[in-house]
Amino acid sequence: MDKTYTALAHQFPDENILMEIATLASETENLIDLSIGDPDLITDEAIIDAAFEAAKQGHTKYTASGGSQDFLQAVIDFYEKHYQLTFKPNQVRATVGALHGMYLTLKTILNPGDEVIIHEPYFSPYKDQVIFSGGIPVFMPTYEKDGFQIDIELLKSAITDKTKAIIINSPNNPTGAVFSPELFKQIADLAIEHNFYILSDEVYEAFTFYDDFVPMATFAPEHTITFSSFSKAFAMTGWRIGYMIAPDYLNEAAKLINESITYSAPTLSQRAGIYALDHADELVPKVTSVFQERLEYIAERVAEISFLSLHPVKGSMYAFINISKTNLDSVAFTEKLLKETQVLVIPGKAFGESGAQYIRLAATQNLVLLKEAFDRIEKLNF
């Protein structure tokens, strides 16, 4: 047997830029990897200890498919305390990371041919998940000259009678933009007027360095599905735990789908998540302060390199660096960078066509390695 026995959609996959770069990287010695958003930080020892104790106390079995009552309540309490938002347990679902929740939601809401608006540059799994769910992705560009903010007039022009949802990501991966509450309100008003869902990916909510974060559900609670996870703010990428918050009827439909997929999120990861949320005020600043310091250092170094530029980063853990002065596209630049300096980044084209003149650099290595990386980068010639 061979690949002709697989589904037709997977026999001739689209160009996979990330896979090609990863192959090059695997053959590179002395590599400094600034590509994937996997923090170099280890999960706080107190969270690990809490999960270990939970295991010894017998939390090694399935929870209810939507998550344990303790976990759901911890999420509810967190939003009440930090954002003054009130949710019921039947609105909250424990998920295996935020993307699991996004996929469940798309499978729940989309009929064949429904359109989902995605602002570009975008986190690449969004497109695939929409297509896998039978929908049609509709891309709407954002521009550096606008601070990578959504142009509300462009959004209006993208809405049709087939629009079922928009995916919003703020703080944004890859651009580092943070959408203002005023923009959130304008998007919410359009969703209410045209009756479409807002799928709000808020994984980087803690990484708003200069302003307070306001969740999208503040403005359109009946139209918003919120996704978040513990991966970034608590340095828990490998625990694979997140959650979604949705209208109860939608969460009930997602339950029926999920019980035939993962059934429930990992029990010990839920216990770790409970401790993390209950101690967020103490734990989160330890992580976010590290990334703010690193991103500010990256901005300083980029400013010293004539062929690079960087729009001010307001949030997330990434720098979306403009490489247009090199006269190379993002793939060619990334390959040159890897071969000549052994520094690995992600070409901006991986986040949509509007990223062709950018690279994404993840601040996921310490300042010593970041200094070494930029010492190498500044020696490049074009």
Automatic annotation (TrEMBL):
Note the InterPro entries from the entry.
Aminotransferase_I/II_large, AspAT/PAT-like, NHTrfase_class1_PyrdxlP-BS, PyrdxlP-dep_Trfase, PyrdxlP-dep_Trfase_major, PyrdxlP-dep_Trfase_small
**The entry's keywords:** Aminotransferase, Pyridoxal phosphate, Transferase
For this chain, one GO molecular function annotation is: transaminase activity
Q: What domain of life is recorded for the organism? A: Bacteria
* SUPFAM superfamilies in UniProt: PLP-dependent transferases
Determine if Zinc-finger is one of this entry's keywords.
no
> Residues in domain Aminotransferase class I/classII large?
30-376
Among CDD domains, the record links this protein to: AAT_like
* Cofactor(s) this protein cannot do without: pyridoxal 5'-phosphate
The answer on whether this UniProt entry bears the keyword Transferase reads: yes
Q: According to the UniProt entry, what is the EC number of this protein?
A: 2.6.1.-
Family, according to the entry, reads as follows:
Belongs to the class-I pyridoxal-phosphate-dependent aminotransferase family.
Name by which UniProt lists this protein: Aminotransferase
Q: Which organism is it from?
A: Carnobacterium antarcticum
Q: What does the organism's lineage look like at the top?
A: Bacteria, Bacillati, Bacillota, Bacilli, Lactobacillales
